[in-house]
């Protein structure tokens, strides 16, 4: 199906009490809690594997002068040491996935320089520690703020890096109320629970990888380029994945090195897992950013000029940039507009997508700038946003498919008790705690990706669905089972969902908030085709046919499925993006509300409560959707208050490269958090009339927290995260200013 026209009435609309929309438990839950869900490193499908351990560079720029593997090769259990001297020939880089160990150049700290394979993990680790590498070290560039002048306009961008409308400079200069602020966000790590891991084995000129990968078809294509193979000669299997957040969108060193070592070992399986420290330094990260935001408004709060400029960085030779200003192009109305992105290449690990790339850091800055403008106008920040609600997309000049940002703000304000808020900063106390509340909008692009699915209905009533889709812990197995069950009128327990294998029909994979919509729509189309085959065996009217309870009912007549499917029926379905993505501006929307307490002596910030109100089209499963939204909000709290990879500016290394020192929110940091959804169907989006949710929860969440901190203290911090040392500096500055006054 080509999504070029709005969708009419569908079987999901005709059966509102069916499985879709019910908050059922995860169908894969029992497997996970009993340990029967095998993740990549636990798989036993490939027998007698060798265990690999990666050796990484301890300089950030330079060349390998010498690598001594003699001692390691003689150690007990060692079967192979892979270096630049004996690595198999490799092809070209594709989708940020490139060959490894091909030369002696070091581009960043943590770059793989060797792989040891042994009979056990412990033997491989011990031998890896015995490898001695001598470097000719060179001076590198590690600090974005020092490289702003060298940053360039990105090339080969999927979206235009710059946009302009009207005359921003003139509009800004003539605005009676202006904000010109600089915000910074730090390097962040995905820090998923499961480290990257792969088991790879060759059979002739074909390679199979059981691996932790969010998008197997994309990984298959990239690895085929690296291994110089036809795409069909590369098979990826990713049945269960312990989190990704974008860090497993591309195959990483574990996959590439495991496969290369297996090839040198005549096809013997090789198993590689990255250590937690290597996950930080040897895979991808979220880039740090420097952002300048300028807002001009009249005295009634109507925006007349918006500019959002962003600088980010990635590894040498790469072109990925953080699209921080993209969401600004559609968020609020203003006649004069400017957005720009610039990219610096530093000697740091590869930057790539991390949960809500662009919006996550862009809205941290932009939604705080909106709060600053509201303060300058003495206007309620919700009212400011409402007054600048656009009638259509401000830059594309097309209608929104659906847009309920204002209803989310209003319903959130009602539920949160916003009307009781004291707008004067630093005016509310609860004993030792300074108390404040903040708000932020949420918006996330709603894309659709090509996907296919195959379904089969057997005589015993079992419905089997196959596709190369993945479940990274978000509930994909569950919502797809619900869609299939409703479309064919069987119980969810009768659905057998087989995911994560590129031998099955291609799918979008998990990422970009397009996974559920894309794979679910392909499954919908496959089930629709199967319904057509079944109805063709009857004289029932297909226009009002309802599949439920193992029967087809049309008017006052019905038939049992088991009497119609013979020895079994099979069908395939496909979804493709269409013109609707050009005809309509498609986003999911929401609003965040946060209340914080700030200790008046220590500067400690404590989240007291938080609410998110969202719209995401048809909610396929309220339980998994709420879980995703709250998870995103927690991500936002971390970005606001604690998450930051500390880059050593002398050496280009990451100082805090493990979960002991890279702080993410834990239960003690998170009191009452709730997420609710407003009713919505988007018939321009896909056959499910749903929208993406996985990343929406993080968009703007941290800004609501930061705005609440300002309301509590009167201290505006533009350098994320908002750690207590920055609060204390603000206390000192206020005291100094008061003494001078």
Give a structural overview.
The chain is α+β, with helices and mostly antiparallel strands and 741 residues long. The chain has 18 helices and 28 strands. The strands form six sheets. It has a seven-stranded mixed β-sheet with strand order 4-6-2-13-10-11-12, sandwiched between helices. α16 (622-641) crosses α17 (701-713). The mean pLDDT is 97. Pfam families: Ald_Xan_dh_C, MoCoBD_1, MoCoBD_2. Residues 1-29 are annotated as: Disordered.
Task: Record the strand order, biggest sheet.
Answer: 4-6-2-13-10-11-12
Shape: globular
Number of strands: 28
C-alpha Rg, in Å? 27 Å
Our measurement of the CA-to-CA distance between the termini, rounded to an integer number of angstroms, reads 69 Å
Write down the overall mean pLDDT: 97
**Hey, roughly how much beta strand do the residues contain?**
15-25%
- Oligomer category: single chain
Poorly predicted tracts of residues: none
Q: Please outline the major beta sheet.
A: 7 strands, mixed
Tally the helices: what do you get?
Answer: 18
Determine the structural class based on helices, strands and strand pairing: alpha+beta
**Helix fraction?**
25-40%
